[in-house]
Amino acid sequence: MKELLLFLATRLAFLVEPGQFRIVDSLSSRSQGGDALLKLESRALRIHLARDRGQILMTFQPIALDNEWFSPGLLRGLLTGERPESEVLDDAWAEELRSTLPMLEDRLSDPVVAGTTVRELRRQANLRAKELFG
User: Fold this and answer.
1) What is the dihedral sign for C-alpha 107, 103, 78, 122?
2) By CB distance 3.0 to 4.6 Å, which of 12, 52, 77, 101 could disulfide with 124?
3) Tell me, what's the pLDDT at 31?
4) Burial class of residue 78, CB neighbours in 10 A (0-12, 13-18, 19+)
């Protein structure tokens, strides 16, 4: 948990600035050297930050959805048309998320655009699955 909290505090601190996200839950275990999960929520978005086998990963979900989660790579695909090979969070990802998460929140907060945004994220997920599995 310590590594995950440190990453949040040093690289993703913009998430927990006033009026942004709030930490709503956390889990940790001793397995794999300390796997951990932080759950954050904003007005339109739910985020899971995880330390899994020494890697920091993120998934997000529009608040309006219950069971469907997306990754930062799908968000990049939505915004630029290109998806990365790795989605392990690092300094470069943190900088990208600083600019892209507010855009995503704005889209999901607008009822006119939210449905299209979710459909496009699903399309990106399908394209990725086809690339990976044929």
Assistant:
1) negative
2) 77
3) 73
4) buried
**pLDDT score recorded for residue 59:** 97
CA 19 to chain centre: 18
User: What amino acid occupies position 99?
Assistant: S
Question: Residue 83's pLDDT is what?
Answer: 87
Going by their DSSP bridges, the two strands 22-28 and 36-41 should be labelled as antiparallel
Q: Which helix (H) or strand (E) holds 49?
A: strand 45-52
**Global pTM?**
0.91
SS3 35: coil
> Which residues of the chain, if any, have pLDDT below 70?
32
Q: How far apart are CA 59 and CA 87, in angstroms?
A: 10
CA 40 to chain centre: 10
pLDDT on residue 32 = 66
